[in-house]
């Protein structure tokens, strides 16, 4: 099994996003925030010392991504999993340290062209928007799933384009340089969204 765990961040608001790479699928959880201050970065590093932190910028917004520790082998499986689980478990209380900010936990999973999303938005230690729900392939609607993602990201200041492209959901995002600027005006080709990586 080839697993890659990521975590991301957008705003003075946040998005928690887990990332797992599997054969023809992609799954992600992490924190996204527009708060790129050194103070916040240090607080995040102290809270989640194994997390990967990356600043980014594109035509929609700029922010900071806090990615889960990467699981590259099974030798430290328990330690990495406990650390990564703590990001989800500690996110709501962590938001109490930054009461003026919105933080969102986002989970996405795509396999065979079928994409599921869920998550919640929290502020000052309270969940204020809850879009969590289980997968139900029989009642699957991409429009409904994308609608949940749009609602969560909109709450933290991220407005997705018509095609639903969100830079941190690009398979090679964490392999790119630390800071990335994407400009449509300069006609720079964006990496394919994760749901199009097989095309």
Provide a short characterization of the protein structure:
The chain has 199 residues and is an alpha+beta fold. The chain has helices at 38-47, 77-95, 142-155; strands at residues 6-7, 14-22, 25-33, 52-57, 62-67, 102-111, 114-123, 126-130.
Can you describe what's shown?
- Strands 1, 2, 3, 4, 5, 6, 7 and 8 form an 8-stranded mixed β-sheet that branches.
- The protein is globular.
- A hairpin with a 2-residue loop joins β6 and β7.
- It has one domain.
- With 199 residues, the chain is of the alpha+beta class.
Fold blueprint:
Blueprint: E1 6-7, E2 14-22, E3 25-33, H1 38-47, E4 52-57, E5 62-67, H2 77-95, E6 102-111, E7 114-123, E8 126-130, H3 142-155
Parallel strand pairs: 2-6
Antiparallel strand pairs: 1-2, 2-3, 3-5, 3-6, 4-5, 6-7, 7-8
What is the H-and-E element order? EEEHEEHEEEH
Instruction: Work out the number of β strands.
Output: 8
Total of domains: 1
Overall body shape: globular
In the predicted model, the low-confidence regions spanning at least 5 consecutive residues are 1-12, 17-23, 179-199
Largest sheet: 8 strands, mixed
Number of helices: 3
Q: Could you give the distance between the termini?
A: 22 Å
Radius of gyration: 16 Å
Overall average pLDDT: 75
Helix content: 10-25%
Strand content: 25-35%
Helix and strand composition category: alpha+beta
